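Board notes, transcribed. Complex of a protein with potassium ion.
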Amino acid sequence: MPSAFPLEILTTDQMARADRLTIESGVPAMSLMESAAVAIARATSQILQRTSGRRVLVLCGPGNNGGDGFVAARLLRAQRYKVRVASLTPLDQLRGDAAQAAAAWPCPVSSALECSFDGIDLAIDALFGTGLARDLDSNASALVRRLNRWRRESGQNVVAVDIPSGVDGTTGAVRGAAVEADATVTFFRVKTGHLLLPGRLHCGALTCAHIGIRPSALDSLAVETFVNMPQLWRAALPLPQVDGHKYSRGHALVVSGGASFTGAARLSAAAALRAGAGLVTLASPIEALAVNASALTSVMVRPADGAKGLAKVLSDERKNAVAIGPGLGVSEESCAQVETALAPQAYRRAAVLDADALSSFAGDPERLWRATRAAPGPVVMTPHAGEFARLFAACESDCGCRSKLDKAREAARASGAVVLFKGADTVVAAPDGRASILPYATPWLATAGSGDVLTGVIAGLLAQRMDGFLAASCAAWMHARAAEIFGPGLIADDIIAALPQVWRELCAAQQK
Ligand SMILES: NC(=O)C1=CN([C@@H]2O[C@H](COP(=O)(O)OP(=O)(O)OC[C@H]3O[C@@H](n4cnc5c(N)ncnc54)[C@H](OP(=O)(O)O)[C@@H]3O)[C@@H](O)[C@H]2O)[C@@H](O)CC1
Ligand SMILES: Nc1ncnc2c1ncn2[C@@H]1O[C@H](COP(=O)(O)OP(=O)(O)O)[C@@H](O)[C@H]1O
Ligand SMILES: [K+]
């Protein structure tokens, strides 16, 4: 996992407001730019010390991102680095702080469109930052492509100021072309575009520098998007109590598919136990009872055929969280089972819907929303991109300018459920507007059954009565951390086996 960031994630509009509020409160804009440049110069010289490089090219754009570049150039020159500056815009067209920063640069400035990278040890990308308002034009795109080619061919480093130029700071989309950076230094708070793909892949090592904007600038921004890291959900993390017992840790029920599709639900069930549920029962079709029973030890198995059988097993109120979908099969009977799992009850049973529990409603998602909205407790849905597209066509059919985060939020509002939108940049969105973005997950997680394990971890946390949004966020993090601990060669079973180590780390941090 990357080093910790501040919890809040901003859009570029929110960042601009925080900036404005800070300047209105009396902090000079130039002092923010100076602090930003100090952080850039520090990151640059750390890399140059490592590579023993001395020669730096700073590419400056038309706005304040370019202004940061001019100031960083001056600071690095003062540290005796050999610095050249190239500008995308004629200097007489610069305005405000950027013009002031350029005026304080004591050496000649060349045109960025014609600049050479010959003999350069490191390039600073200060072309566009959070003010990027449209796709790069052909000149800027050509420059970015030339920079990327130089980086790949020379093996030298590129440091991006605030965000790699061409990445949309809010959506993470590439606007025509985008810089591929080795390190990105952003300011105050990370932006959504740093963590959503493809933006994250352009950032390299991302750090967030304090530049003098006070946290109180967040007060009026109503920030609802957070980095998915332990700080977000640590206070709600369920831990066994000295005076507790297994029932006080909750009882998760996992619904199994037919005889040839039982592995998925067993993975979920084992993961729910490892996530801390006091008891886990597998509701199995009678035809699959023998295979399930012979493959399980600490997970209990009960016969349950179809929706009726499930209703009978669920008549025990102590089964307070149900996971359904892995290996279930796409059918009308599956729809009926999901409706049974979500049926209004006098008590708050929680539910996780994954895989076939979602796909079974592809032809009539409104039917599923009726059930999720009426459900008595928290409901978490865990679609991957294919399942999301099938179920949330309305959130998908747009001009292409909405981000994964926007889509997940919209889906959560439409369904009244927490939506965990899987992938390398897993987003969790709650119907009340809260959302989290997982900053990192190893691609070794792309292996059969990995999603089934995630479903089980969520069910285990929900059984322990964790809030739906926090449980889904925590599960996504634990899942990713377990995979990171295990490392290369991972299969789904290994995620379950690594969960105790994740708990040990979380408990150790809790005791500090
Ligand atoms: N916020 C803070 O607290 C602090 C922010 N700081 C820094 O300021 C940066 C934000 O500065 P910014 O607002 O001037 O925007 P920036 O990214 O330089 O670009 C805007 C310029 O680009 C132009 N332009 C836009 N798109 C274009 C395109 N496709 N192709 C061509 N041109 C395009 C646009 O022109 P226009 O749209 O007006 O035609 C305008 O001239 C931020 O990333 C950080 O580095 C720090 O100093 C510390 C404090
Ligand atoms: N490239 C990737 N990087 C990080 N995590 C990934 C990547 N691809 C998939 N994952 C994660 O792996 C899991 C796969 O789940 P899913 O697609 O449902 O698989 P399955 O159905 O086989 O269980 C999800 O948690 C997803 O976020
Ligand atoms: K930049």
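The two ends are 20 Å apart (CA to CA). Residues 29-51 form the longest helix (23 residues).
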